[in-house]
Design a protein that fits this description.
This is Carrier domain-containing protein. By secondary structure, the protein is mainly alpha-helical. The chain has four helices and no strands. The longest helix has 19 residues. It starts with 5 loop residues before the first helix and ends with a helix.
Length: 105
């Protein structure tokens, strides 16, 4: 299976983010993009909605690419720069995990 493009992964994260925001009943930001913050003071989600997003993304990735990934594990939490900082950093992290999984799978 070919590795999805960075644009495809970014779109998957953005789609999941839109759903998580709608479910959390928070106001939808005017623009969602790679630089949109997922954690910290400028975050568009609260902690519960972030967990919802992560679980949703794991399910989407398994359905679309037939690969079971765990996004929030010790590896993610021990990184100097959290992969959950922004939409773009999360998409990049997913790409790295997919590349590793497909290389070993």
């Amino acid at each position: 299976m070919p590795l999805p493009t960075p644009e495809t992964l970014l779109q998957i994260v953005l789609d999941g983010l839109r759903e998580a925001i709608e479910l959390s009943e928070r106001p939808m930001p005017a623009q969602l993009e790679a630089s949109t913050s997922l954690i910290g003071k400028q975050a568009v989600l609260d902690s519960l909605a972030l967990v919802t997003l992560i679980v949703d993304l794991e399910q989407r990735l398994e359905e679309e690419f037939e690969v079971a990934l765990t996004l929030a594990d010790d590896r993610a939490m021990s990184q100097q720069h959290s992969p959950f900082r922004t939409v773009g950093s999360l998409a990049e992290y997913i790409g790295m995990l997919l590349a590793e999984e497909l290389a070993h799978g």
